[in-house]
């Protein structure tokens, strides 16, 4: 008897439906074809044990299983349940009439229990697109898949529940989630708040500008000055995720298997902080069986690189293209996958190996040559893609001991959102430009027009501070964001003056 069941394979952040054809005939051998990897091939032992533990038997006949399309490699253990239901249907142990109406996925334990799978959200989206009635999967992934409308999602704990469902011996209630209610209930609860940060008003102002214009930023200062503490609070002042962004972000984390159990929808912007020992593949994504990297996990959020010069140069250089294109393309001989990578890069570093910048009170001061060698680990092209250079100084005791609460993240976020609304209106006719940091050279000349006084100020700054040529465009972009925060139609001289001070690493002789 021939029976077809349906599973799904995830490539990039999209799913492809896989047809599992099971034929049982006279004989004794077992054949599994259709480019399965080792994890799929090992399913026979897991399925046989699971059926035995639940009172069913492995057919003592010739079993041929084909996973179509046969030219696409099938990876992972999530096809266990798909294959098991096909074998039970083909051997007549369950009613196979309705098997073709459902996508069935899940990894089996030896006792018949079900383990979580990766990519439940994109699989559910594809199942709805192709008109399947429902999606049967492990209960741990059910909330994640249930945010897809017009698809019945059944979360189950073990294979016995699925068998009884198809034999109509019991029913399983489909999980229903009000996606919008779930989204809006959790959207205003940031974990970290700027109200906890004492002092550092000038740094908070710089980070507010970075958030308002989507600018990349680097903080330079000695250990203990608060760089990491400030960076962790940046997501709390970014505009809340839209529902579309939340779905897109959740999909990436689902594919990577990094969603927390029983999570339905990500409602806060991601904050990723990889260790400096990370490899270039782990950062941008890829591998033998491609997976999204840290920069894709930070999509619609913040990627924080602490101690930037400690990262391997090759790791930093592979970020240059994603920072421009906001997408990562992984190419293999048989296929190519794209992972979205639209993130804010926030970096921090000490100004020298010892961490102290020309500090006469420190016993660990470094020579100018040592400092120059340390700073030169960051290439010019990468630095060119960072708009704001922020010098961070330690907080004095008077500020630390203050009882007064600092300005909260919600108050800063309101100003950021107002500035972003101005930019949304400005760039509504430009498909891939949403905020100031994304402006290209042509658009920059059109949008960032400055008067004669501003031109004179910028000329003086370039000459007196020995700023490099690459600083010019960055200053104009940041000045435009400063103007937006003040709801100013034109870029004034004071906006330019504030933007100029955020190019410290471009100054010749900055290290003394």
Summarize the entry for a quick read:
This protein has helices spanning about 40, 45-55, 80-90, 120-130, 140-145, 160-165, 180-185, 200-215, 225-230, 245-255, 280-285, 295, 315, 320-325, 370-375, 380-385, 395-400, 410-425, 440-445, 450-465, 470-485, 495-500; strands at about 1-10, 15-25, 30-35, 60-70, 100-105, 105-110, 115, 135-140, 150-155, 215-220, 270, 285, 290, 300-305, 325-330, 335-340, 345-350, 390. The protein is an alpha/beta fold and about 500 residues long. The protein has 2 domains: about 1-165, 2-Layer Sandwich (Ribosomal Protein S5, domain 2); about 185-415, Rossmann fold.
Task: Describe what this molecule looks like in 3D.
With 512 residues, the chain is an alpha/beta fold. The chain folds into two domains: 2-166, Ribosomal Protein S5, domain 2, CATH 3.30.230; 186-414, Rossmann fold, CATH 3.40.50.300. It contains 22 helices and 18 strands. It has helices at 38-41, 43-53, 80-90, 120-129, 142-146, 159-166, 179-186, 201-213, 227-232, 243-255, 280-284, 294-297, 313-317, 320-325, 368-375, 380-384, 397-400, 409-426, 441-447, 452-464, 471-485, 493-500; strands spanning 2-11, 14-25, 30-33, 62-68, 102-104, 107-108, 114-115, 134-138, 152-156, 217-220, 271-272, 285-286, 291-292, 302-305, 327-331, 336-340, 344-349, 388-391. Strands 11-14-17-10-18 form a five-stranded parallel sheet. Helix 8 (201-213) packs parallel to helix 18 and helix 21 crosses helix 22 (493-500).
